[in-house]
Design a protein that fits this description.
Helix content is 71%, strand content 1%. The protein contains 22 helices and two strands. A two-stranded antiparallel ribbon has the order 1-2. The protein is globular and about 65 Å long. The two termini are 39 Å apart.
């Protein structure tokens, strides 16, 4: 009875498999409870600090999960492994810097900031659950938790005409896309008798109802394609990004995309891994359309937020190029690119929120003229994020594209990589145009908003993101190794359950 237990014999509490999600949820509830007892005109900044501390605890819990053997819990609906931990860390870090950016953004403009922090935390809970779910119904529930929060956040500037419009448009089109995803789940169940990804994988391998499974994957691809702004399901993106508050856009353009791409990777390689011929042509076409439409659309934009919206469509296409590569190479490349894109895009929208202010009345290209002389540090940070989006060496964007295109070439998709490189050349034009506007256009007379000074929380967030861009561009090895460890989990439930996450990655 007192025989010592080996690590393989230890029965871990199921709660440890979703510990980051539990901490995020409890912090969100705490923020709402404290909000209810604060006086109406009291500063809500302490609520943001509570949200930041809860997010740090969730990130620490994700790191702790690296020390646990991979495995499932709650009747096989969730699975903690290197793959889920990677995306937990990405989403947690995005939420952390978003909260830092937002700490002073709403100060003095609204008394309902506590709801804002709680919605971010609840949305992050849904996103994290998506990345560790191996049951499609659990994915659907998590997707709804994430989506409802982002729908509300998109319209948070209630007195702005464009913000409620963005929220309504996002909600209506998002609900429509979710119906496609849910119907795809139903077709999967009809074809295989299960909604568990591993059971679906067995049905696909046995050749169960190939036509039905093809339609099912197409339906789910439509639903997830909307969430990640893939063409031709991208029509909502420019309007929503323009109307939503800039910190919210930084969040919704990265964290939900990371979660949706994680789900798409699990479905494509986990459930439909033996049926690449079914989904490869669809992914190929959507990657080309997204890269081309996104970059060509950005060329014509004079509003910086709309330009970056089309840019996000193009980057979703770049990331989808990795899906055409063979596992685990493609999975690792897609995971790394998700982290790289998050660092540079959250930073870009963070700078926009600082330069344009709460009302965001100055977001056109001409409004950024001479910014480098009025705000040299902010302009320098913005320049770092823009050159990373271009893919200049020694930045995260360069190595992200390098790994994606290399994976595509090594998998026999050289033409897709060539199209991606050509599109990167097109993208360089509108990024450099913005840089030229900042550094080369004559300085205009100072404006009232130009005299504002950055607060410590914002400076800390930008410092973290700039360091992340250079760290991922100069020392990408550790993050790439963790991404590769996550890719190795796509070898089946038995291997995933027995795999131990390489803790040595943290000690290098």
């Amino acid at each position: 009875m007192n025989e010592p237990m080996t690590p393989s014999m230890i029965a871990f509490s199921p709660a440890l498999r979703i510990l980051p999600e539990i901490l995020m949820t409890l912090t969100g509830v705490l923020v709402m409870l404290v909000e209810a007892v604060l006086k109406p005109r009291t500063s809500r900044k302490p609520l943001g600090i509570v949200a930041i501390l809860g997010t740090l605890a969730a990130i620490a819990a994700s790191v702790y999960q690296l020390f646990l053997p991979a495995g499932t819990a709650f009747f096989g609906t969730v699975q903690s492994d290197a793959f889920s931990v990677f995306f937990h860390l990405v989403i947690g870090c995005i939420v952390l810097v978003t909260l830092l950016i937002s700490l002073d953004y709403f100060e003095g403009h609204t008394s309902f900031v506590g709801e804002y922090y709680a919605l971010i935390l609840f949305g992050a809970t849904g996103m994290m659950l998506m990345t560790c779910s191996v049951e499609l119904l659990m994915v659907f529930i998590s997707l709804e938790i994430s989506s409802i929060s982002t729908y509300i956040l998109a319209g948070y500037r209630k007195r702005s005409a464009t913000s409620p419009e963005a929220s309504i448009k996002y909600f209506l089109l998002g609900s429509f896309a979710t119906a496609f995803f849910l119907y795809g789940i139903a077709l999967c169940f009809g074809a295989t008798g299960s909604t568990n990804l591993y059971e679906i994988a067995k049905g696909v391998a046995d050749g169960a109802s190939p036509l039905l499974l093809t339609v099912a994957f197409g339906m789910m691809l439509i639903g997830l394609g909307f969430k990640v702004s893939l063409a031709p399901f991208h029509v909502w993106t420019p309007d929503v990004y323009e109307g939503a508050p800039a910190p919210v856009v930084g969040l919704m353009s990265t964290a939900p995309k990371a979660a949706a791409f994680a789900v798409l990777l699990r479905i494509a390689y986990g459930a439909f891994g033996t049926a690449i011929h079914i989904w490869m042509p669809l992914v190929w076409i959507m990657a080309v359309l997204s890269m081309t439409i996104g970059n060509l659309g950005a060329l014509t934009q004079r509003n910086v937020k709309r330009m970056l919206a089309y840019s996000s469509i193009a980057h979703a296409g770049y990331l989808l190029v990795a899906f055409t590569a063979l596992a685990p190479m493609g999975i690792a490349a897609a995971s790394f690119y998700t982290a790289a894109y998050a660092a540079m895009n959250v930073g870009a929208f963070g700078i926009i929120s600082y330069l344009s202010g709460y009302n965001e009345a100055r977001t056109s290209l001409s409004d950024f003229a001479g910014i480098a002389r009025r705000h040299p540090v902010a302009a320098a940070a913005f320049a770092v994020f823009l050159i990373s989006l271009i893919g200049i060496p020694f930045t995260a964007g360069f190595f992200g594209k390098f790994y994606v295109f290399t994976a595509a070439i090594n998998s026999g998709n050289a033409w897709l990589a060539v199209l991606g490189l050509l599109n990167s050349g097109v993208a360089a034009f509108y990024y450099l145009r913005l840089l030229a506007q900042m550094y080369m256009v004559p300085v205009e007379p100072p404006r009232e908003a130009d005299t504002a000074h950055a607060r410590p929380a914002f400076i800390l967030a930008m410092a973290i993101l700039v360091l992340a861009v250079f760290a991922l561009g100069i020392f990408p090895g550790r993050i790439l190794d963790l991404a590769r460890a996550g890719a190795a989990t796509f070898s089946g439930p038995a291997n995933a359950a027995s795999q131990t996450v390489p803790v040595a990655l943290l000690r290098r």
